[in-house]
Amino acid sequence: xxxxxxxxxxxxxxxIHVSMVSLIINLALSAMKLAAGFxxxxxxxxxxxxxxxxxxxxxxxxxIGVTVSNKQxxxxxxxxxxxxxxxxxxxxxxxxxxxxxxxxxxxxKKIAAGNPxxxxxxxxxxxxAAVLSILVKEWMYWYTRSxxxxxxxxxxxxxxxxxxxxSLSSIGSFxxxxxxxxxxxxxxxxxxxxxxxxxxxxxxxxYKDTMDKMIDKSCDDRTIRAMTDVILHVPNVLSIDVLRxxxxxxxxxxxxxxxxxxxxxxxxxxxxxxxxxxxIEREFPEVKHCMVHVNPSANDPAAR
Length: 304
Known about the structure:
CATH architecture of the largest domain: Up-down Bundle
Radius of gyration: 25 Å
Shape: elongated
Helix content: 55-70%
Order of helices and strands: HHHHHHHEEHE
CATH topology of the largest domain: Alpha-lytic protease prodomain-like
Strand content: 5-15%
Number of strands: 3
CATH superfamily of the largest domain: Cation efflux protein transmembrane domain
Distance between the termini: 23 Å
CATH class of the largest domain: Mainly Alpha
Structural class: mainly alpha
Largest sheet: 3 strands, mixed
């Protein structure tokens, strides 16, 4: 399967462009939600507005993480700075978790007060704001997710899930506000608790993915199978003895041992290794470096 190649410079430009779009939209949405929640007396919408405001900070973190991670290797960091994206994603997950807990605690306090009749009934502007937020944030999720997959950015993907959690929280706000307007005001703070659950779940997913990349987890099985197919289609490769991969932030390192005819001259064996190296880095743009070792084999290539 052919993979789309994107240069490092283009990766940074794409990430910064998407982040700027997110920043502008989140600023507008958070202001709208907070105003609607305040004037329409909706705790759920105010919670949703706080969530959107946290998205502004998360986007700034993504922009910093992407910029630093794209710095060239230097003497102190010979393997590059890709793990700075992991640091950005980790900060996002913590921010998301704290935001969710804060929203949930606020909702629980209102429910525990035990006087549903005293709760204010949200006005129509809060309901309209929830609908608009659902539409905009769901679009932002798919927009950011597409860019993250294109440039293999973990931090940008974390920001995409932040958009999705905001969309889900707006759905919770809509249900709570609608229920409150239909005569069940306690549904408004209950919606805040439901929003909390969605946000904490998103935070955990981001944290888990980040930890996998921090501890050098291997590439997924589908990628390994695709790499195996590419290697075996390189002329004069008899077999694959070892294929190891490890994630380094948003990039991957690959170590390969192949078998080739033991009677080949050193120059020809080296060229086979070079062909494997170039094929892997060409077909898999997420691979930052590929090391290939050639083992001698007595097998006749014609018998393959």
